[in-house]
């Protein structure tokens, strides 16, 4: 996908892995083997309100009964694992918990508003599943992930590293009649939690003792090993494109290995990483002119001035100004490369 979500796999994302495996497995189990038990996982607000079936607020908002919703939400959770890597599992779990609780309140408000305005009583049966927190994650995704153009189409229209994620969200948004209620309540709850409105992030959070307990018990089960190598680069349309792709892949592998070695040295000795000392030759390598068959050496250009706008975008993602400056200088003001380094490490 065209997302800059760091390295592939679920390394340093045990909570995301558990949200991918457990609800998906239960959803398949209910759909294929236990269809008679699906009635216990229906998200029926009418039964919650009139019959005081409070347990439906939990069971009806954890497991998807529609396999299409299961598939789309799983893909989105996989791409949103970047936030668990950046903030840590405890803060990521606190955001999901806060969005899950707040969205239940907004579900009631929106359903009552729809019934009062349009007299639609069927709106009380909302789509089941862990959907509202997934929609809530679009708020930090929109605000903190840089938008990097991948391809230009039809004049002003362009494909970015975030396009396919928005398409997935739109697919999930249109998968049911009343899922828009869940989507809106999720977006509102994500906005409230992300903006720290009414200090909800201090009330709806995972206690440290609980986070420590789950790190001892469940994290070893759902942890993933560090990826040993980068994914293979797809074959280009021409030989020139293939060679350029291989050169770019070698650049990334070299920079990642040197960055990891520098971090180990900094942990032992302390101090700031000297990016310019580590990566001076990356933008000064020899360029090959395939059109006229001649080789020419590109003279080393003076270092570009770091863009304050790009520094601000990296700082909005949670990185310090010093790390943002060093990453941009090392990557020659390439925001995509700098973001990938900072997210993966």
Give the topology.
Layout: H1 14-32, E1 43-44, H2 45-50, H3 56-59, H4 67-79, H5 81-87, H6 89-118, E2 125-126, H7 132-136, H8 138-144, E3 149-152, E4 158-160, H9 163-173, H10 179-194, H11 200-203, H12 208-217, H13 219-222, H14 239-269, H15 275-278, E5 287-289, E6 294-296, H16 308-316, H17 321-330, H18 335-344
Antiparallel strand pairs: 1-2, 3-4, 5-6
Helix pairs in contact: 1-4, 4-9, 5-6, 6-10, 16-17, 17-18
Describe this structure in words.
The model is unreliable at 1-5, 230-237 and 274-301 (pLDDT under 50). Helix 5 packs across helix 6 (89-118). The chain has a two-stranded antiparallel sheet with strand order 1-2. 58% of the residues lie in helices and 5% in strands. It is mainly alpha-helical. It is globular, with a radius of gyration of 24 Å. The chain folds into two domains: 14-222, Up-down Bundle (Rhomboid-like fold); 307-344, Ubiquitin-associated (UBA) domain (Helicase, Ruva Protein, domain 3, Orthogonal Bundle), CATH 1.10.8.10. It contains 18 helices and six strands. It has helices spanning 14-32, 45-50, 56-59, 67-79, 81-87, 89-118, 132-136, 138-144, 163-173, 179-194, 200-203, 208-217, 219-222, 239-269, 275-278, 308-316, 321-330, 335-344; strands spanning 43-44, 125-126, 149-152, 158-160, 287-289, 294-296. It is a multi-pass membrane protein. One of its GO terms (molecular function) is serine-type endopeptidase activity. It is found in: Endomembrane system; Endoplasmic reticulum membrane. Residues 305-345 form the UBA domain. Its main location: membrane.
């Amino acid at each position: 996908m065209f997302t800059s979500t760091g390295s592939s796999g679920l390394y340093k994302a045990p909570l995301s892995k558990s949200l991918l495996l457990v609800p998906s497995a239960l959803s398949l189990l209910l759909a294929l083997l236990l269809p008679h038990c699906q009635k216990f996982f229906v998200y029926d607000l009418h039964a919650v309100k009139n019959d005081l079936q409070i347990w439906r607020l939990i069971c009806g908002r954890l497991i998807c009964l529609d396999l299409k919703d299961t598939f789309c939400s799983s893909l989105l959770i996989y791409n949103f694992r970047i936030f668990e890597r950046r903030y840590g599992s405890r803060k990521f779990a606190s955001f999901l918990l806060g969005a899950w609780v707040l969205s239940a309140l907004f579900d009631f408000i929106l359903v009552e508003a729809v019934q009062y305005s349009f007299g639609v009583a069927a709106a009380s049966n909302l789509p089941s599943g862990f959907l509202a927190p997934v929609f809530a994650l679009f708020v930090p995704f929109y605000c903190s992930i840089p938008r990097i153009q991948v391809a230009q189409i039809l004049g002003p229209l362009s494909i970015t590293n975030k396009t396919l994620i928005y398409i997935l969200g739109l697919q999930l948004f249109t998968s049911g009649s009343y899922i828009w209620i869940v989507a809106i309540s999720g977006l509102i709850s994500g906005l409230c939690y992300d903006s720290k409105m009414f200090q909800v992030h201090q009330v709806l959070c995972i206690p440290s003792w609980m986070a420590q307990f789950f790190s001892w018990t469940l994290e070893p089960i759902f942890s993933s090993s560090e990826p040993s190598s980068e994914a293979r680069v797809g074959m280009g349309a021409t030989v020139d494109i293939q060679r350029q792709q291989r050169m770019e892949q070698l650049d990334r592998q070299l920079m990642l290995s040197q960055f990891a070695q520098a971090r180990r040295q900094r942990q032992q000795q302390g101090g700031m990483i000297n990016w310019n000392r580590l990566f001076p030759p990356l933008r000064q390598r020899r360029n090959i002119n395939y059109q006229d068959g001649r080789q020419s050496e590109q003279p080393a250009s003076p270092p570009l001035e770091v863009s304050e706008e790009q520094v601000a975008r990296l700082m909005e993602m949670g990185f310090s100004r010093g790390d943002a400056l060093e990453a941009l200088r090392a990557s020659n003001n390439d925001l995509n490369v700098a973001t990938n380094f900072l997210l993966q490490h």
